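Researcher: I'd like a candidate sequence for this fold, 285 residues long. If you have to choose between options at a position, lean toward the conservative one.
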């Protein structure tokens, strides 16, 4: 219940034009090796490099001994290798992940984005402890990616939280596993402010027509599906109510036109009948 009311709240906020804050959170992966191991390797590398360089340039410790002359060079070489290992285990190859209004994105070179409406399924692999997100990217091509919990605990937490708020039916995680997923902290990640969604060039989710004029578009605040304003359904495919996005004044005009044009309209029939009834009443009294 709490989730539902939250969704409504954001929807209400989004009605106010201009006051909409489109945001996402950016998560940089954490190294999977423990920090102390990385520190130990780093210290060893520094020692080796330092000893090697000192021996090489200043001490000339082994300069007299033919067999040991190369020792400082070996120290430097070993130090360089250990430094490389330190960097390798100290950083993770997992790309930064973004979660927010526009969907789920991975920063692998370029930003690749999966809008919420394109998410087909979110599952959790208990074996590899990774969230598996399947769907389509912005260009419409199939895309499945994994977000492992270890380097990305906060990203996983936020993907699950937002997905449960926005596209709950796409989340296919057993309750037992849901408990294992880390909690989404309010201050996790780095918040990124975004421009409003570019609707021009997008296709209406109902008619497939390309939007060419921005004011003609309506966007579902939950999944960012784009609709042409005349084709906005009462309910989005993500289950969000879009009644507030339907053009009310236009509907009114249509009704008036219909009543004017066709006299045999049901509504107008009713109206005339009630009018005549009223007239009868006044006449009789
Ligand atoms: Zn929607």
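Model: Candidate sequence:
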């Amino acid at each position: 219940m709490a989730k539902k009311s939250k969704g409504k709240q954001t929807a209400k906020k989004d009605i106010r034009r201009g006051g909409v804050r489109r945001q996402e959170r950016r998560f940089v992966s954490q190294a999977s090796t423990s920090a102390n191991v990385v520190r130990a390797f780093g210290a060893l590398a520094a020692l080796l490099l330092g000893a090697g360089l000192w021996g090489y340039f200043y001490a000339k410790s082994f300069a007299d001994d033919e067999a040991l002359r190369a020792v400082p060079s070996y120290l430097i070489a070993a130090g360089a290798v250990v430094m490389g290992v330190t960097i390798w285990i100290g950083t993770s190859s997992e790309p930064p992940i973004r979660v927010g209004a526009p969907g789920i994105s991975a920063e692998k070179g370029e930003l690749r984005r999966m809008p919420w409406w394109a998410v087909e399924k979110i599952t959790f692999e208990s074996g590899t402890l990774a969230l598996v997100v399947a769907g389509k990217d912005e260009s419409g091509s199939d895309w499945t990616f994994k977000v492992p919990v270890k380097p990305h605990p906060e990203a996983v937490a936020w993907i699950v939280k937002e997905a449960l708020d926005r596209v709950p039916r796409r989340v296919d995680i057993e309750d037992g596993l849901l408990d294992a997923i880390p909690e989404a902290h309010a201050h996790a990640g780095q918040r990124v402010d975004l421009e409003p969604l570019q609707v021009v060039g997008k296709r209406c989710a109902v008619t497939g027509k390309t939007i060419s004029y921005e004011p003609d578009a309506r966007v579902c605040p939950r999944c960012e599906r784009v609709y042409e304003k005349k084709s906005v359904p009462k309910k989005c495919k993500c289950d969000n109510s879009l009644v507030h996005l339907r053009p009310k004044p236009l509907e009114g005009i249509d009704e008036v036109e219909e009543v004017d044009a066709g006299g045999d309209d049901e509504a107008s029939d009713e109206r005339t009948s009630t009018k005549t009834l009223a007239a009868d009443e006044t006449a009789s009294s």
